[in-house]
From TrEMBL:
Reactions accelerated catalytically: GTP + H2O = GDP + phosphate + H(+)
High-level lineage: Bacteria, Pseudomonadati, Pseudomonadota, Alphaproteobacteria, Hyphomicrobiales
Native organism: Pseudaminobacter soli
Keywords (A to Z) from UniProt: Chaperone, Hydrolase, Nucleotide-binding
GO function terms (MF aspect): hydrolase activity; nucleotide binding
Domain of life of the native organism: Bacteria
GO cellular component terms listed in the entry, alphabetical order: cytoplasm
Gene: cobW
Record flagged with keyword Hydrolase: yes
Keyword Chaperone set for record: yes
UniProt-recorded name of the protein: Cobalamin biosynthesis protein CobW
Family: Belongs to the SIMIBI class G3E GTPase family. ZNG1 subfamily.
Function comment: Zinc chaperone that directly transfers zinc cofactor to target proteins, thereby activating them. Zinc is transferred from the CXCC motif in the GTPase domain to the zinc binding site in target proteins in a process requiring GTP hydrolysis.
A matching Pfam family: cobW
Stored SMART domains: CobW_C
Domain CobW C-terminal: 254-345
């Protein structure tokens, strides 16, 4: 077998904050079809919430030791420090993995990451099977890239020469521009007209033929996503993005911090406070785990703007610190004190 044939395929899953990447990946892990999978999760912030959600799957196809979390910094900015060591760790595992899934931070640009697959130390061992962008259907139908960012609707224009200065808009456009497949999430919330509007918005950022696949609750057949065999690293220079002329980039347009909360007695009341805080302070995303008084189960809280989901995901482990912590992500200048006050109730 030649070295190129022996290379392990990697699927890069990108997408804006709260678009549904983690839900879709969990479905893939639970329906792996005999593949031995490994997962690299790049969390924005200091608490590995997405990794914890995925580790809770308990599926044989991707055991917990095959999940590597990178919690410090955006992966596309820290390729050498974080990505290569993570690959080394995964490729050394026995039995050998058949496929690697990389979940990027919601703020990550896929192009610098894919370009790293051209490095000699990487290229000989792995290849980019495909780049998958997950997009929020209802938000796009409303003319936005995220459900809570109403201000972005007015900034979208038909004129292709219009300069979109908003950093979130540019991140979204770069992710779609690099995609080989676009997953239109939450499609069950879209009627025919909304589906048409969302599709138009996606197509406005595509320079080539890319399939758009509707999905509900993250349910996408893994055979649609895995095994594309595209060797994207060989074509990535042809995928034009906003940041092509930049030697480097930083996500200085975003703030992220952790809010510690006391145990709660009523999850619904907490969800209301989370929604109110997100709406009043223009928070993009909140997610974390919460201890509920008298409950042996851990409460998972995820919010995209004012839209909040919460459920008990698993029992607290013996000896586990039952702290309540939420990661808060927003645009630069987010008022931390005001967010903390709103969450405290």
């Amino acid at each position: 077998m030649t070295a190129s044939l022996a290379r392990v395929p990697c699927t890069v899953v990108t997408g804006f904050l709260g678009a549904g990447k983690t839900t879709m990946i969990r479905h893939i892990l639970e329906n792996a079809g005999g593949r031995r999978l490994a997962l690299i999760v790049n969390e924005f912030g200091d608490v590995g919430i997405d990794g914890e959600i995925l580790k809770g799957c308990g599926v044989d196809a991707c055991p917990e030791e095959n999940i590597v979390e990178l919690a410090n910094g955006c992966l596309c900015c820290t390729v050498a420090d974080d990505f290569v060591p993570a690959l080394d760790q995964i490729l050394a595992k026995e039995p050998k993995v058949d496929h690697i899934i990389i979940e990027t931070s919601g703020l990550a640009l896929p192009k610098p990451l894919v370009q790293a697959f051209q490095w000699p130390s990487v290229k000989s061992r792995v290849t980019v099977d495909g780049v998958v962008a997950v997009v929020d259907g209802p938000a796009l139908a409303a003319g936005q890239v995220a459900s809570d960012m109403d201000a972005l609707a007015a900034q979208r224009a038909a004129d292709e020469t219009l300069d979109h200065d908003d950093p979130v808009e540019e991140v979204f456009e770069d992710q779609v521009a690099c995609a080989d497949l676009v997953i239109l999430s939450k499609s069950d919330l879209l009627d025919a007209e909304a589906s048409r509007l969302a599709a138009e918005r996606i197509e406005g950022h595509l320079s080539r033929a890319v399939k758009v696949v509707p999905a509900s609750q993250g349910r996408v057949d893994p055979s649609v996503l895995l095994g594309l065999g595209l060797a994207v690293e060989d074509d990535i220079e042809n995928r034009k993005t906003h940041h092509d002329d930049e030697l480097d980039h930083e996500h200085d347009d975003f703030d992220s911090f952790i809010v510690e909360l006391p145990a709660v007695s009523n999850p619904d009341e907490l969800a209301s406070r989370v929604a109110a805080a997100a709406e009043s302070q223009n928070v993009l995303r909140m997610k974390g785990f919460v201890h509920v008084d008298g409950k042996p189960m851990r409460l998972l809280v995820q919010a995209v703007g004012p839209r909040v989901n919460h459920y008990f995901d698993r029992p607290w482990a013996a000896g586990e610190d039952r702290r309540s912590r939420l990661v808060v992500i927003g645009l630069k200048g987010l008022d931390r004190a005001a967010v903390e006050k709103a969450l405290a109730g």
